[in-house]
Design a protein that fits this description.
The complex is a heterodimer of chains A (about 350) and B (about 280). With about 350 residues, chain A is α+β, with helices and mostly antiparallel strands. Helices cover about 35% and strands about 25% of the residues of chain A. Chain A has an eight-stranded mixed beta sheet with strand order 3-2-8-9-10-11-1-12, with helices on both faces. Chain A starts with 6 loop residues before the first strand and ends in a 5-residue tail after the last helix. At the A-B interface, strand 6, strand 13, strand 15 and helix 11 of A face helix 1 and strand 13 of B.
Chain lengths: ~350, ~280
């Protein structure tokens, strides 16, 4: 929830916010350009934050060009809060169990988009109070969110009700309107940050512009299907042959799982070490991987279409039953980073068109 | 160590006894580590071979007094194959119990029909034990058991005990008879014709390969069993046991947490769907 309503300041004051977060001892994480891709990483200076670039995203394609607004890259907050690899514990040869002490860090995400803010809300539901690593980082996590004035080619946050404007759960949310900055605070800390800026309550003209920008952005970020009744409609078509047609293009590479900001599945490996001890390591896993449904002497999803179907239905139907919310936030990463450009939006529409027997 | 990490850390346990069941199946009796609850029939534990890996194994027997719990393991995968090397006195990692077991309370005063296929008998064995111990708690007990060959039959040394439980019928069949086999031949679902009970007063517990369970369910439904009286123990890949790693999903259910034992009505929307 907004504590303050909207204020307006100057775009250059973003630097002030950044410096203050650093001064308060936060590890500030935001987008920087690495090898022609926007990657989330620690920012040591405001200059490192990506600027004057735009990401062009479409199914199976990603490129950076010069521009004044960008969305995101393949990384999501999950990468930091629920890392791809984590040593859970070590068992010595004498059976003494030791759990590694995780480094306590105060993280501030800077310039996350509303879809990724929503993904943290999804992860909260699953991991908060359950996963210690996540919970300890989440406790002091600061979220400075940038509203999306220009959603990309694979974005559908508007359909998933997660954007383009962040409505709650942020410390500070800002919107860049050329050289102006529209800001609102959503927490005590956000309020402190807001007070550092030279801002005034938003005037009618700026507010009107802000509203129009958000409305237009909202129109752009639609998937072409409606959420209303979707989980049930998809479940009614659980035996749809459409999944088989779609996976003709699928490589089963699990990129979709890996870039998804909410996929939480993991595998564990027990690694024997030279001194006779063994570590258990947790790594990300995903339902598109062949081994995901495999057991010794059997396989529950040997066919790729079944694994892809599980991905689609988990995000858009089962998740509701498991956690009371959608598992998809409409960020579009699974579409952009699919090597063959399989488009979740098109899949859903095609399955729905196929009818109940299709 | 917090709640979550603790939930995933195996405790040290020593193997009290190993019993050879068949050429590739053995039962490992483990003294339950202190602080762990005694498992209920149908629950499973995660057993860890140091440096190799962990597997979910159902409880095939338990002794409340000595807190010794049995796990019957077939050597099929990379982890279970190393079980063959384990001997009495060896240490393994142990955590559990996990999941929801057989509905013994609901079955109180009713008849129980057990349908087991192959390695599906061990998870049902604690049910037989419980009925034998507390015979007046349930009505008739019918045990139907099928295996591939006579050599694959589990626990054949105790069939006499099953048959001597009052008001109990025990039928066994094999797919492929070997020399000297005089018993039934054919799939276990053929035995359902022997089930002479009032379905509305009876529970059916099924455990075995998924394909066998599907046939068993069909037969039981034909016999008039209702979907809230048919229970199945499902198998899936399981790496955590607490509904987090995701591998055991069947539709919206985490089999390790919401199961592994489910009433059919719970899962009937998904159970018949190919490769769900």
């Amino acid at each position: 929830m907004s504590l303050t309503g909207l204020y307006v300041g100057r775009a250059v004051s973003l630097r002030i916010l950044f410096s203050e977060l650093r001064r308060l001892g936060y590890v500030v994480i935001g987008y920087k350009v690495v090898d022609g891709v926007l990657r989330l990483g620690e920012l040591n200076s405001f200059e490192e934050l990506a600027h004057d670039v735009e990401d062009i995203q479409s199914p199976g394609k990603y490129s950076l060009v010069s521009g004044d607004f960008y969305r995101h890259g393949p990384d999501s907050p999950k990468r930091f809060l629920y890392p791809p690899t984590l040593t859970l514990f070590k068992v010595s040869s004498e059976w003494v169990v030791s759990v590694p002490a995780y480094e306590e860090r105060n993280i501030a995400f800077f310039g996350l988009k509303p879809c990724d803010l929503a993904s943290i809300k999804v992860l909260d539901k699953i991991l908060l109070g359950v996963d210690e690593y996540y919970t300890s980082l989440r406790k002091n996590l600061v979220l400075v969110v940038e509203n999306c004035v220009s959603p990309g080619g694979t974005c559908f946050c508007s359909t998933m009700n997660t954007g383009p404007r962040a409505r709650d759960s942020f410390d500070l949310a800002y919107t860049r309107l050329n050289d102006k900055l529209v800001v609102e605070a959503g927490s005590e800390l956000g309020l402190k940050l807001l007070n550092l800026l030279e801002v005034e309550p938003i005037d009618d003209v700026t507010y009107e512009r802000f509203e129009v920008m958000m409305r237009n952005a909202s129109e752009k970020a639609r998937a072409g299907f409606e959420l209303n009744g979707l989980p049930e409609e998809l479940e009614l078509r659980i035996e749809s042959k459409t999944y088989e047609e779609i996976v003709e293009k699928c490589l089963g590479c699990a990129n979709c799982n890996m870039v998804c900001p909410t996929c939480f599945c993991f595998d564990v490996f027990d690694v024997p070490l030279i001194d006779g001890s063994a570590e258990r390591v947790r790594v990300w896993d995903g339902c598109l991987n062949f081994t995901y449904g495999q057991v010794a002497g059997g396989h529950f999803r040997p066919d790729l279409w079944a694994r892809y179907r599980h991905f689609v239905l988990h995000k858009l139907a089962y998740w509701i039953k498991q956690f009371g919310m959608y598992g998809c936030v409409g960020c579009g990463r699974c579409i952009t980073w699919c090597p063959t450009g399989i488009d979740l939006r098109e899949t859903v529409k095609k399955v729905l068109r196929g009818g109940k027997g299709g | 160590m917090g709640k979550y990490t603790a939930a995933l850390v195996p405790l040290k346990a020593s193997i009290a006894r190993v019993r050879v069941e068949t050429s590739n199946v053995r039962t490992y009796y483990v003294k339950l580590p202190d602080g762990l609850e005694l498992p209920k029939p149908g629950q499973f534990n995660m057993l860890y071979v140091h440096g190799v890996g962990e597997v979910p194994i159902s409880v095939s027997d338990l002794d409340e007094e000595s807190r010794v719990v049995a796990h019957t393991v077939r050597f099929v995968g990379s982890v279970t194959k190393t079980f063959e090397l384990l001997r009495e006195g060896d240490l393994i990692g142990f955590r559990g119990p996990y999941g929801i077991g057989w509905p013994m309370d609901a079955a109180y005063g009713k008849n129980i029909v057990l349908v087991a296929g192959g390695i599906g008998l061990p998870p049902l064995r604690p049910v037989i034990r419980e009925v034998a111990r507390n015979r007046s708690a349930v009505g008739k007990l019918i045990i139907l058991y099928g295996a591939r060959t006579p050599e694959d039959l589990m626990f054949s040394y105790e069939y006499g005990d099953y048959e001597s439980i009052p008001n109990t019928e025990f039928y066994v069949t094999v797919d492929k008879p070997s020399e000297g086999w005089r018993g039934n031949v054919g799939v276990v679902t053929n035995l359902i014709k022997h089930v002479d009970v009032d379905p509305s007063e009876s529970y059916a517990f099924i455990c075995g390969p998924e394909i066998m369970m599907k046939f068993a369910v069909r037969e039981l439904l034909k016999r008039g069993f209702k979907t809230n009286k048919i229970y199945l123990s499902l198998e899936r890949r399981m790496k955590c046991g607490v509904g987090l790693c995701g591998h055991c999903q069947m539709g919206p259910y985490f089999v390790c947490k919401h199961g592994p034992v489910f009433p059919l009505w719970f899962i009937s929307r998904y159970f018949w769907v190919d490769q769900i």
